[in-house]
Design goal:
With about 180 residues, this protein is of the alpha+beta class. The two termini are about 20 Å apart. The relative contact order is 0.27. GO terms for molecular function: antioxidant activity; oxidoreductase activity.
Length: about 180
């Protein structure tokens, strides 16, 4: 399992639309997912230890960001052929078990992950109300284990700034995680 780091934020890059099936049986797109002040697009999966280490914090932060007009959507782009834990049925189970407060959708063709330039799980793309990229950093200092409970909440603070000003912080620490499991044809 290769650990990768996300590139730096390309401020102003426009969000790319998608139409993906969610674990709720509905189709989701950019317009249905966005909030008044912005949208957090998250590439996650079920099996990655980096994602598992932050799931409770992710749910907490997304719930709090909703109060500031920032919505979120989670996209699973891994090929489940080699990683059965990432199957759609397991996506449904995980979303229910963890009470995900955001749509959890499957990028079966992997086209959306490629279009966004997603490299790892988790990979966070924080957009303002005009759907311009303002955050491409980590959730917090967690790695394969959760960081201390009182650790700085990088993503939450960055997206709160986006909600208040429309701009993300200049200094962002990249996210780190498992590589996207690309389909081999």
């Amino acid at each position: 399992m290769a650990s990768l780091e996300t590139p730096v934020c390309e401020f102003g890059w426009k969000a790319i639309d998608f139409d993906l099936l969610g674990v709720d049986g509905k189709r989701h797109n950019l317009n249905s997912a966005k909030g008044e002040k912005g949208l957090l697009v998250m590439f996650i999966c079920n099996h990655c230890p980096y994602v598992k280490a932050i799931q409770d914090r992710l749910v907490r932060d997304v719930n709090e960001l909703k109060q500031y007009g920032i919505n979120a959507i989670a996209i699973m782009s891994n090929d489940p052929a080699d990683y059965p834990e990432d199957s759609f049925d397991n996506m449904v189970r995980i979303a229910k078990e963890l009470n995900y407060p955001f749509p959890y959708v499957w990028d079966e063709t992997q086209e959306i992950a490629k279009a966004y330039g997603a490299v790892c799980t988790p990979d966070f793309f924080g957009f303002n109300g005009a759907l311009e990229l303002q955050y491409r950093g980590r959730l917090d200092a967690s790695r394969k284990e959760a960081a201390a409970p009182d650790v700085r909440r990088d993503l939450f603070e960055g997206m709160l700034q986006v909600a208040r000003t429309g701009r993300g912080p200049e200094d962002q620490i990249p996210s780190i995680g498992c590589s996207i499991k690309w389909r081999t044809e």
